[in-house]
Amino acid sequence: MKLTPLKCPHCGAKLKIAGNTVLAACQYCGNAAEFTGESAIKLDQAIIKSEGPPNILLPFWRISYKAKISSLAAHAPQNPFQQDGTEAFYRRKDVKPEDLEIPSRMLVAAFRVNNFINYTADLSQALSLKLDRDLPEKDADKSMDYGRCYYGHLDAQGMVEVLLRVLANKKSRDILDLDFDIKWRERKILWWPFKQDGDCWRDMIYEQRLLQSALEK
Predict the structure, then answer these.
(1) pTM of the model
(2) Is 125 in contact with 162 (CB distance < 8 Å)?
């Protein structure tokens, strides 16, 4: 395993981080950093408060951004009920960029999951809506389980672009081809509390179920 010599962005101590490490705590000061290529970046993080101790805290990237639709094309799906140019169901035409609601921040899983795009689209949307209700946060401990962190913030930004297209298409009867101009803003790791419930994990706050089988073991 290749080790890369790096300096802690908090205290300046020399670190040796394995090449596949995404997030880790400094062994000297205990503060966490994100590792991208040959650099270490200060990590901003918090824990979503819960009423009791969770069985597990899962890491999510909260990505803030300003997104504009740079191009938009809409076309009808291949409808089995379509005959002689007439569709059996009403389809809204001439979709315009202003018709689409674009969120200004999104949660994306930082832990490893199977079927990442399909699975996290619904999960990201549901948990992002919960965040809009101003959930209470507290400072994260220095002893977080960073071994669960598999995706860095660049992965998360790429997934935000994918999820924006997925979420837009879920609200339209047309098939939408979109491109975005995105200015990235704050990024932060949020540790979300989950409670074990039989063969799945249950969110302690909102009972949003997260299948354990979706987690890579």
Answers:
(1) 0.82
(2) no
d(CA 65, CA 102): 10
91-94 contacts: CB < 8 A, separation 24 or more? 91/173, 91/174, 92/172, 92/173, 92/174, 93/174
Six token digits for residue 69: 């639709």
Strands 23-25 and 32-36: antiparallel
Q: Which residues contact 100 (CB under 8 A, 6 or more apart)?
A: 69, 168, 171, 176
Instruction: Give per-residue pLDDT as tens, 187-207.
Output: 999 998 887 665 566 665 555
φ, ψ for residue 57 (rounded to 5)?
Answer: -110, 120
Residues 6+ apart with CB under 8 A from 12: none
φ, ψ dihedrals at 124, nearest 5°: -60, -45
Residues 141, 193: Cα–Cα separation, whole Å: 14
At 84, is the secondary structure helix, strand, or coil? coil
pLDDT digits (tens, 9 = 90+) for 22-68: 998 998 999 999 988 778 899 999 998 877 777 788 899 999 999 99
